[in-house]
Design goal:
229 residues, Rhopdopsin 7-helix transmembrane proteins, mainly alpha, 12 helices
């Protein structure tokens, strides 16, 4: 069942990513490109999670899962939020995105993955804990600075946008991010079956918030190209 939830997350995140990238193609909004890239990586991470649950965990599968899900998805969402909050600094935000990607790639490439922890999770049909697989490794050390900072920016930024623009539907995006982030707590507490549920539910709620916000803009806002938050 957990694998099915993870697979569903692939399609939800993929659909969300395509919607955002199409918006970027039509309106050239930088935040849509950052968010679209983030959700595309989210879909890749869910695919790696599906493969790990159904086929077993290998170092390459966990590397993809960790890189996309733990290290870069939330920071890229934060970059998109920064584009909305301070669009005049767009070049700086893209520089931040590039730096995050380079740090994350380097951290994963130089890290060693504990084969015993991966094998144990495979035997149990669960999800390996990052602290076990990457204990003392750069890929684990990068988790808190990247993800915690990104989560704060996204949540605070979306709440502020919802209040300032009087669009309560935007709060669903923040709620979705928080729910998806709760998946790490489930892994730490041996509630692996709830991880795909949280990840898929989180991205589905984010997508619902995005769609509701766009739908509520009205024809005048749509013609003006007003962004969704």
């Amino acid at each position: 069942m957990a694998g099915l939830f993870a697979l569903a997350g692939v399609f939800v995140a993929g659909a969300f990513a395509m919607r955002l990238l199409r918006q970027f193609h039509e309106r050239r909004r930088p935040h849509a490109l950052a968010w679209g890239g983030s959700l595309l990586l989210y879909a890749v991470g869910m695919a790696a999670l599906t493969a790990g649950l159904w086929l077993g965990w290998s170092s390459p599968a966990y590397a993809v899962y960790w890189f996309t899900g733990a290290l870069v998805t939330v920071p890229l969402l934060a970059v998109g939020e920064l584009h909305l909050l301070a669009p005049t600094y767009s070049r700086w935000w893209w520089a931040v995105a590039s730096a995050v990607m380079m740090v994350a790639v380097a951290a994963v490439v130089v890290s060693r993955f504990d084969a015993a922890a991966l094998s144990s999770a495979t035997a149990d049909g669960g999800i390996p804990l990052g602290a076990d697989v990457l204990a003392g490794q750069p890929a684990y050390a990068a988790l808190q600075p990247l993800t915690l900072t990104g989560t704060v920016i996204v949540v605070v930024g979306t709440v502020w946008s919802a209040v300032r623009r009087r669009r309560p539907a935007v709060l669903l995006i923040a709620l979705g991010v928080v729910i998806a982030a709760s998946s790490s707590a489930f892994v730490r507490n041996d509630l692996d079956a709830l991880v795909p549920v949280a990840l898929t539910s989180g991205v589905a709620i984010m997508y619902a918030g995005f769609r509701a916000t766009v739908a509520n803009r009205g024809p005048l806002s749509a013609r003006a190209g007003t962004h969704p938050t």
